């Protein structure tokens, strides 16, 4: 009751603070610019010769944000911006003076990939709340990029339909931009008051300037935004757009060729001036990128990134609190492994789908004038069945491995004071029939003091898992206090979860039953000092405990360092010392733990100047266990070659060698068998792009990952009380050694043939192998892999953008 009362009191305090005057950082002078109404739209061609621009006043006086702090822009590189609007769109004209035109870096890239190109940036906050912005960028090569901003986080998968063109002469480079109102959400008011920020990145000088000054040592950059006034009597248009698609693919594997044709539709609809409905009907994810699968011998599942645009674009509300792991939707059926084990005598499995099919999905999100964000997400997956055949009678039977399932998320997010929020989130998974269901509710807060000196953040989460005849409730929380102003900063944090906390129906959580404490302090600079544009020194520590039983699992202290020089060379590293660690998860047995010895770990890394044709990143790490032969070594090398402004190639080499680690082997009657394991991994990957222009290009993606795990002979042990391992003569009943090798190759051609519309031609091949041939070297394993069956796939996907307003105007005319 006391805990509940605390959060109720906090809720009313925050709501009351929202009614007060909005918080602004100290030393903050807000610029204003009045946009001009025009009657004839300019031609968007990058040449600012239209007569309409002659009568529009310009604004300038940009100041440095990187590497310095507030230094006026060089007179030789003055930047001028004009803003105009009509009933359909808002228009921008920008002049970026450059006395040495040949030095402007004009690297060609596809959408949302800036590379090293110089660029002009616009941030628009139509609700002027200091937190939610839409970012528009055009590079000197004409590449477009856009992102949804929440504070300082950027979502570049948020794609809008807008126009921009550039041109260049011996004095400057120029940008001309048109942003239709259909690309923005704004309130229905007679007079609009928008937050606005302009920025210019001069890559060859290693400098970035902004129109409205940003104090980097206090608060967040999104708070330091100017005002755009003068936009009157405009109406939000009908925001309705369709993305019909069609795809065709041919797949060949083991001399069997299959073809598949698919068609579907995504659409967006502006329910109101603030809220948008996004939906995908009959989705097709055939051209999503390969997952970076590895040999996973840990007690936890491998976490993958999301490659499906629908689940990454505009999901900033749904990802609050880290309760949404979108890969759960369309993941392996919950009965997949059980179906492989449920084989009767004389039966074989003839079908057991590895993924549940997504039927459809939608999301509704937006924010009211009072800064209340509301989000609703829903997805439905189809029933999945395993099919068995009796090899004697020929009869078949089926087993449901995943029923029809419904996934829901509801979010309420109240922002206030331009920098703080409180949120309520609920996620729910309901499966049809006698299967597991899950429900999770959370309360979050992130509050800055009025002077932006301190930040208080926390979360309380309640989980409920419903399995047949049982309801399991769990709880987790975290709370942190941080100093957020000045060169010296510090903070403390507490994390807690009881033994029944489980959010894995729609989220991802590896551990529970902990009671952990963390602290840190750091010193950093915000203006250049000597040879450094930036550097930060940080010290940190942790004390890890088990909740039930109440005991220490580990303690550690460490420090790290980061530096960025005036020549754009970066380097850093970390060093930490850890006590003995009680691992309750490696044994895979409730209540049991294995003790790992004290260790010292660290790494160092360097990163060279990406503006040069040849650049590189490299990192080397080492972990030494005290009075124990266990050790771990890692090496990463990433050279990159920019052959010209169109062609870039990046190679990555990763090597990891872990020796003499006591690792889980198998469960025994009453005991857990461990063995000394050596594990070696090598990963080679290549990323290459060739861009014909900013609308079409070719992309190459290649990855080969090899890993071998070897358990040393006659070095097995059984786990006893207090985490001790006792040598045994027992040998495992199955070979625990593993040889894993995977090869993925993608070659694609992408053509944006109209705004919002594109065609993608993709060729890919892949090979996979997992066996016990651990004695094979990397090259021997690769040779064996290449002898295996090759899966080849070629597909064509075409997406066309249709805007309701354009279609209506065509029919009117």
Automatic annotation (TrEMBL):
<feature type="signal peptide">
    <location>
        <begin position="1"/>
        <end position="19"/>
    </location>
</feature>
<protein>
    <submittedName>
        <fullName>Carbohydrate binding family 9 domain-containing protein</fullName>
    </submittedName>
</protein>
<dbReference type="Pfam" id="PF19313">
    <property type="entry name" value="DUF5916"/>
</dbReference>
<keyword id="KW-0732">Signal</keyword>
<dbReference type="InterPro" id="IPR045670">
    <property type="entry name" value="DUF5916"/>
</dbReference>
<feature type="domain" description="DUF5916">
    <location>
        <begin position="236"/>
        <end position="811"/>
    </location>
</feature>
């Amino acid at each position: 009751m006391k805990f509940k009362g605390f959060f109720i009191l906090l809720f009313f305090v925050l709501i009351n603070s929202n009614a007060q005057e909005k918080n602004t950082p100290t030393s903050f002078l807000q610029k204003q610019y009045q946009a001009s109404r025009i009657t004839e739209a300019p031609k968007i061609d990058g040449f600012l010769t239209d007569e309409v621009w002659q009568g529009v006043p310009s604004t300038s006086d940009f100041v440095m944000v990187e590497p310095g702090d507030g230094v006026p822009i060089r007179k030789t590189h003055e930047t001028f911006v004009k803003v105009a609007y009509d009933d359909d769109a808002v228009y921008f004209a920008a002049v970026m003076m450059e006395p040495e035109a040949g030095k402007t870096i004009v690297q060609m890239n596809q959408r949302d990939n800036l590379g090293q190109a110089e660029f002009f940036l616009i941030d628009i906050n139509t609700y002027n709340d200091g937190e939610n912005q839409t970012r528009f960028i055009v590079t000197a090569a004409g590449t477009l990029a856009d992102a949804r901003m929440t504070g300082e986080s950027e979502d570049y998968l948020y794609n809008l339909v807008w126009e921009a063109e550039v041109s260049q002469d011996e004095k400057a480079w120029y940008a001309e931009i048109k942003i239709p109102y259909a690309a923005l959400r704004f309130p229905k008011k007679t007079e609009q008051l928008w937050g606005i920020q302009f920025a210019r990145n001069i890559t060859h000088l290693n400098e970035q300037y902004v129109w409205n000054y940003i104090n980097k040592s206090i608060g967040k950059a999104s708070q330091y935004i100017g005002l755009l006034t003068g936009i009157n009597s405009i109406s939000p248009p009908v925001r309705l757009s369709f993305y019909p698609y069609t795809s065709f693919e041919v797949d060949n594997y083991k001399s069997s060729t299959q073809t598949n044709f698919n068609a579907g539709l995504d659409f967006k609809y502006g329910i109101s001036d603030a809220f948008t409905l996004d939906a995908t009907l009959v989705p097709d994810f055939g051209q999503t990128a390969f997952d970076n699968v590895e040999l996973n011998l840990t007690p936890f599942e491998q976490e993958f990134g999301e490659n499906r645009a629908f689940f990454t674009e505009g999901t900033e509300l749904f990802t609050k609190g880290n309760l949404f792991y979108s890969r759960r939707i369309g993941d392996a059926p919950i009965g997949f492994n059980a179906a492989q084990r449920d084989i009767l005598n004389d039966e074989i499995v003839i079908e057991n789908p590895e993924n549940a099919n997504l039927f459809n999905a939608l999301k509704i999100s937006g924010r009211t004038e009072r800064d209340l964000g509301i989000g609703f997400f829903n997805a439905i997956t189809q029933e999945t069945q395993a099919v068995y055949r009796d090899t004697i009678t020929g009869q078949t039977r089926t087993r449901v491995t995943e029923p029809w399932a419904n996934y829901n998320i509801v979010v309420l997010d109240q922002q206030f004071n331009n920098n703080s929020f409180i949120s309520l989130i609920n996620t729910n998974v309901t499966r049809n029939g006698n299967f597991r269901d899950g429900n999770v509710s959370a309360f979050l807060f992130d509050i800055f003091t009025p002077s932006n000196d301190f930040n208080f953040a926390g979360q309380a989460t309640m989980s409920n898992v419903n399995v047949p005849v049982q309801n399991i409730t769990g709880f987790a929380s975290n709370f942190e206090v941080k100093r957020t102003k000045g060169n010296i900063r510090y903070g403390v944090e507490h994390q807690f979860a009881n033994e029944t906390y489980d959010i894995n129906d729609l989220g991802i959580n590896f551990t529970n039953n902990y009671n952990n404490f963390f602290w840190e302090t750091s010193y950093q600079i915000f203006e250049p000092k000597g040879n450094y544009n930036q550097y930060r020194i940080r010290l940190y520590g942790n004390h890890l405990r088990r909740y039930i039983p109440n005991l220490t699992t580990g303690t550690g202290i460490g420090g790290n360092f980061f530096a960025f020089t005036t020549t754009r060379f970066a380097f850093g590293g970390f060093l930490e010392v850890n006590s003995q660690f009680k691992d309750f998860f490696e044994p895979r047995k409730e209540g049991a733990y294995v003790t790992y010895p004290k260790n010292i770990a660290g790494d160092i890394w360097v990163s060279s100047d990406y503006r040069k044709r040849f650049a590189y990143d490299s990192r080397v790490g080492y972990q030494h266990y005290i009075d124990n032969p266990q050790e771990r070594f890692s090496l990463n090398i990433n050279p990159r070659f920019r052959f010209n402004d169109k062609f870039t190639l990046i190679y990555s080499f990763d090597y990891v060698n872990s020796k003499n680690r006591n690792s889980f082997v198998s469960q025994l009657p009453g005991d857990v068998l461990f063995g000394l394991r050596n594990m070696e991994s090598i990963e080679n990957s290549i990323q290459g792009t060739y861009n014909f222009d900013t609308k079409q290009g070719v992309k190459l993606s290649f990855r080969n990952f090899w890993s071998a795990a070897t358990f040393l002979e006659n070095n097995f042990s059984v786990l006893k009380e207090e985490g001790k391992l006792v040598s045994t003569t027992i040998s495992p009943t199955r070979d625990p050694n593993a040889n894993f090798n995977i090869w993925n190759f993608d070659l694609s051609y992408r053509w944006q043939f109209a705004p919002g519309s594109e065609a993608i031609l993709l060729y890919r091949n892949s090979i996979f192998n997992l066996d016990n041939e651990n004695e094979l070297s990397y090259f021997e394993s690769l040779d064996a892999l290449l002898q295996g069956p090759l899966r080849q796939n070629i597909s064509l996907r075409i997406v066309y953008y249709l805007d309701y307003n354009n279609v209506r105007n065509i029919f009117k005319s």
